[in-house]
Amino acid sequence: MKPSMKITGLLLAAAFLPGCALLGPDYQRPSFSLPALFGEDAVTEQQMQLTAENPWWTLYQDAVLNDLVAKSLENNTDIKQAVARIEEADAFMREVGSALLPRIDLDAGASRSRITELGPNPQFIGTSPIRENYNIRLGTSFELDFWGKLRRAKESARAQALASRYARDTVALSLAGLVTSNYLQLCGLDSQIAISEDSLRTRNESLDLTRRRLEGGVSSALDVHQAEVASSTLAAHIVELKRQRAISEHQLALLTGELDLKLAASDIKQLPLPPLPPAGLPSALLESRPDVRQAEEQLVALNANIGVAKAAMFPTISLTAAYGGESAELGDVLKSAARIWSGGLSLNLPIFDGGRLSSRLDQATAQQKQALAGYEGAVRMAFQEVNDALVNVRQNAEREALLDSSQASAKKALEISNNRYQSGYSAYIDVLDSQRVYNDAALAYIQSRQARLLASVELFKALGGGWQDAGNQ
């Protein structure tokens, strides 16, 4: 058989080597003893078809919020860093994958040298001492992936690339949740400021009335001073609320990248409540959480690294080949007589390395165990966060309903106390107390609405997004 045919046969054989068995364990998703459902309610078949969906923040139906989240996802520096890490991981995956293909290089060179005319070699007598050499050739070297080392490395790199994408999704989810929470807090502060300013106007009117009654000899100076204290205290509280609102607005400016951000006053009561998830939400929804998927891809990568470490303990088989031309004249370098070629097969088998390769295998195995524990911990933490969020959403809804009733009763009590005071049937202290009770009840209701909405944000984050009935998609 001609040498060129032998080399061709070796290359063809190499093409079929990727079908050989891979060393190291194949990845299998770990199974954990998690309950099938969140909570203790029964589940129906329809509820088992729930799937996660994004973007969840649009469920609040607020154009300003949608714009803030969009700007944050576009301008935030954490997102930009995460995107750059994805690009880095993709480039690394392509680099590792390229090792499965032969590398072909073009080498060309020219040299000119002079040989001594006074040397002992008689063959140079009467010839020119100037020597020229021209060569051009294509060369290739290719490691045969007989044990799957390169394919395991590519598997690991691919999992790392996916993990970087899920890391970006985790950052995006956290960022959207942070923007939404800050916006809801700002809306809640706006509503509290509006209620407090309305209460302050009422108290100032009562103060003016009390002063007139004092001038008419109907009220005492004590009533006036008590009214002044109530108005001043509430005015100071409004100043504090405005300070908190400015801080929230500054935080949103930082998150969105617009440092001169200014937002108009809003009313948290105008925001619709997002739909509650059905009872018996399936715990399989945890698979949509990007941090859980990131932890799993990291486990996949480290599991593949065990195969890389094992394959390194077996022989490395490589093919080399070169083809080209070499001549003393540049015009002859491509002629058939100037043709040169070479081909080779090399094998490298580690015999003794002082335990270096086995230590690397032990390291890879230990790293895989760490990732397994991390993945299990991420799943369990996610399960707890969803359960906590579900409790917070439902309990805050019940609390809001009770506080709404309390606010309505306090408002009626205030109206009655005002009428009784103006008719002379009760002291002014009763009016002040009713004003305080109503103001506290109204603020408590706003705070409960804010807490309920914030709890829904935490539920969205815990589930990795919103939810939708798969049958209605």
Task: From the structure above, extract its key features.
Outer membrane efflux proteins (OEP), 12% strand, alpha+beta, two-stranded antiparallel sheet, 8 helices, 473 residues, disordered C terminus, single chain
Report on this model:
The protein is built from eight helices and six strands; from the N terminus they run H-E-H-H-E-E-H-H-H-E-E-H-H-E. 59% of the residues lie in helices and 12% in strands. Helix 6 packs antiparallel against helix 7. With 473 residues, the chain is α+β, with helices and mostly antiparallel strands. The model is unreliable at 14-18, 40-52 and 469-473 (pLDDT under 50). The relative contact order is 0.16. The chain has a four-stranded antiparallel beta sheet with strand order 2-3-4-5, covered by helices on one side. The chain has a single domain, classed as Outer membrane efflux proteins (OEP), CATH 1.20.1600.10.
Short summary of the structure?
The chain is an alpha+beta fold. It has helices at 3-16, 63-75, 77-98, 149-215, 221-256, 290-311, 356-422, 428-463; strands at 50-53, 103-114, 130-144, 316-327, 339-348, 466-469.
